[in-house]
Design a protein that fits this description.
The chain contains eight helices and 17 strands. By secondary structure, the chain is an alpha+beta fold. Strands 1, 3, 4, 5, 6, 7, 8, 9, 10, 11, 12, 15, 16 and 17 form a 14-stranded mixed sheet that branches. α7 links the parallel β15 and β16. 37% of the residues are buried.
Amino acid sequence: MSFQNDKYLLRPADSSDNDGIRAIFESESFRGNLDVKFLRNPAPYESFAADGEMAKVIVAVERATNRIVAVGGAVIRREFVHGRKERCAYLTGLKVHPEYRRKFIYLKQAYAELYEHIKDCPFKYTTVLDSNVDAIRMFEKKRKNMPTYTYLGHYTTYCFHGGCRKIQIEKDHMDGFQELLDRHFSKQSLVPCDYEYKGFGKKHFYCVRKDNEIVACCFVGDQQETKQYKMCSYGGMLKMVSHFPTKLFGYPVFPKPDSVINHGVISYLYVKENDKKLCQDFLQSVAAESPFSLLLWGGFENNPLSSVLDEMKTIKYGSRLYSVDWEGETEIQGVIGMEAAVL
């Protein structure tokens, strides 16, 4: 597909575009008091694909320079929705190189191209950081020939460590997890049906059992082969706090500016009956067992375990969850179980 003025070419990406896509990711960072770059090194195209069964990535190329100036797409995977296994598309967001943000105005064409690749997915959704006010304004204003963004609620990513062994936990003993996936996680929406996607990282399974029943469990994955968080700088109160010995107070050690964060990501967190003390003791014990300086877990506002994490010593950042509808697709309802590892 070409734009009418022939200045840009819009086309599907492939692995030969990795350098151009990487340059766009490296030019961006989170806004706000935590200035962090989210990277997909060394191969962004393959990193997208690792998060699901396939990825549909679109790039915009400036014809005169053959430079990739924008990238966007969707990761397609099977997820539980309303108790069923459904084909879902997670839209990764359109990223435009800073030098072209005022020049690249062809959003409608980009969305039309993307829709052709994902229209067979009945459920489409995306997230945007709370601090990205420009994107939020765009999403929440209905525009002609653009999909409808329906705000579903708030999603919080919790960063913590401060681990100490509170209870005995097992490692890599997964007996009973498949039954738990079918019985518990399948009742939530937007939980991946397959926990073996490469995007979860090289992971270990931790659990607590009582009378041979799993009463608490999670995976902790090292996904740094496909995704990285690079700490750039701190602002506001965090700039001062980052110099404190935060580990002494049970908080994570603040990574040094210009460093890649040694993070692990928690997925498929389960605690029987959402027991607060068991959850907190379990997570602190897992943190003590893991080799990472920082652990991440994400929870939607109606996930009962989010309120438990709210009471722990964590650093957190928020996002807004939207369903994305071109032609009145089915609404996403119920408890949301999205996994931060594959967002």
